[in-house]
Specification:
Helix content is 77%, strand content 0%.
Length: 470
């Protein structure tokens, strides 16, 4: 174990580190109670479950979703969030600069989440966090000493597409599913509104319980990783050398993967004369990196950071190479390089177990409180009448599938917008757009449109303010 002095965390710096960790915990807690309604609104408003057991079960499934995903499916979403800010830039900054950057992003996200929750507006924690990160990154880019762009725009654009199209997908798929249910389910009880003071039939309750469980599980899987991504940025800002490389980083194993890629490039350069220069250039870069790595002293912080930076540059260059059409004569070459790149990339994707557990607990506990404001909006105010069993089940099933698919491809999406658009789609399928309350839909869309610019401006302003005092 390292002492605080060995880690470089003494005095005010240690206090700032604890403050940033607490801020991440608060963000994830707020994220939990802000998004609880997405899972429990349908089971509560269809009287399938009472509120207390519903939110407790949802909180438990959020916790399980994040913990299981970390061991079974990987932490791709967390990596996407962390990669929005070039980590090398964060590492190379002065610690005070990094503290201002991290605190501004987290505080802006918390403020906007709390504000929209207070007014009962289903707003995306994903949009909020991403807007806050973009804001501090863009603000950093305009500083005179900024040597690199403060935002990884390639990743930002990919995330932007996923946030834009996922609600549209949820809306249209919910309509399609409702039409399928009407065509194939003969028992029309599922299309009725809940009767006052009566429980729905057991089979309907079972369906809604399952869809609630799925949404909660996948919410933990996707949204929980956003908090982990934030925590990674904090760790890179304060303890870059300790978290730049995985603890099981092995020079020899790493060299084997590098040698595999080098051999393939060398072979392909002889087969493809048109691309010989490009392939040879990449092979030479690999050879130089290999020499540098073998001589690097991984007990020195600067050497560790240099190795990580070189790994990032190498992986990025080789991935671009794989995108080139007709570059490789042998189809197996691409697969072999991709496989080796995955192993190499894992050495820079280290996430401590305590971080996963801490974020999962904060998300799960947050999910158990503060649910009522948004539940009322989703259950009562999107449609002009009470939600039917089929509408609730369709919205949640489509939401869980959408979030699960996005998580599979390491894309952060908004559970709030996917679910609320699913509810709207299911109600439109029942009685058309006249079944929607235009005022509520307008507020949700307005929040969707305003969240990014508002959080970008808010986090940028906070960053410049914090830089003056930290």
């Amino acid at each position: 174990m390292f002492g605080l002095e060995e880690l470089g965390l003494t005095g005010g710096l240690f206090a700032a580190f604890i403050l940033c960790v607490l801020a991440v915990c608060i963000f994830e807690f707020v994220n939990g109670f802000h998004d609880t309604a997405n899972a429990v609104a349908t089971v509560i408003y269809t009287k399938s479950l009472d509120p207390l057991p519903a939110v407790i079960w949802s909180g438990l499934m959020n916790f399980v979703g994040l913990m299981l995903s970390s061991y079974l499916f990987g932490m791709g979403v967390a990596g996407k969030i962390a990669s929005l800010l070039p980590l090398e830039a964060v590492m190379s900054n002065s610690t005070n600069e990094a503290i201002a950057l991290v605190l501004a992003a987290i505080l802006a996200a918390i403020i906007w989440n709390l504000g929209t929750w207070y007014f009962g507006i289903p707003c995306s924690s994903s949009h909020t966090l991403i807007g806050a990160l973009l804001g501090v990154g863009m603000a950093y880019s305009y500083l005179p000493h900024a040597s690199v762009s403060g935002v990884n725009w390639n990743e930002a654009i990919k995330i932007g597409y996923s946030l834009l199209f996922s609600p549209l997908f949820g809306f249209s798929m919910a309509i399609a599913l409702m039409f399928l249910l009407k065509s194939f389910i003969k028992n029309k009880a599922i299309f009725k509104e809940p009767e006052e003071g009566a429980r729905p039939p057991l089979w309907i309750r079972a369906i809604l319980f399952c869809t609630c469980t799925l949404v909660s599980f996948f919410h933990g899987y996707n949204d929980g990783q956003k908090g982990i991504g934030l925590m990674l940025i904090v760790l890179f800002a304060f303890l870059p050398a300790q978290h730049a490389l995985s603890p099981d980083f092995d020079k020899n194993k790493f060299q084997q993967e590098v040698h595999t890629i080098y051999t393939i490039l060398d072979k392909e350069s002889q087969n493809n004369y048109l691309m010989e220069r490009t392939l040879c250039l990449e092979a030479d870069k690999l050879r130089e990196f290999s020499k540098f790595l073998m001589s690097a002293d991984l007990k020195q912080s600067k050497q560790i950071l240099s190795v990580r930076k070189q790994i990032g540059t190498t992986v990025k260059g080789l991935k671009k190479l794989l995108e080139e059409p007709n570059l490789f004569e042998d189809p197996k070459s691409k697969k072999q390089i991709s496989s080796s790149l995955k192993v190499i990339g894992n050495y820079t994707a280290y996430i401590p177990t305590w971080v996963i557990l801490m974020v999962a607990l904060c998300l799960g506990l947050g999910t158990m409180v503060g649910w009522k404001r948004i539940v009322v909006t989703i259950g009562e105010k999107i449609g002009k009448r009470h939600m039917t069993y089929a509408e609730g089940a369709s919205a949640e099933l489509i939401a869980s599938i959408t979030i699960g698919l996005a998580s599979k491809f390491s894309l952060p999406v908004s559970t709030t917008h996917v679910l609320s658009s699913g509810v709207a789609g299911a109600m439109v399928a029942s009685k058309g757009t006249k079944n929607l309350q235009k005022g509520t839909v307008k507020n949700i869309v307005l929040a969707w449109v305003l969240t990014l610019p508002a959080t970008i401006i808010l986090s940028a302003v906070l960053y410049y303010i914090f830089r003056m005092f930290i």
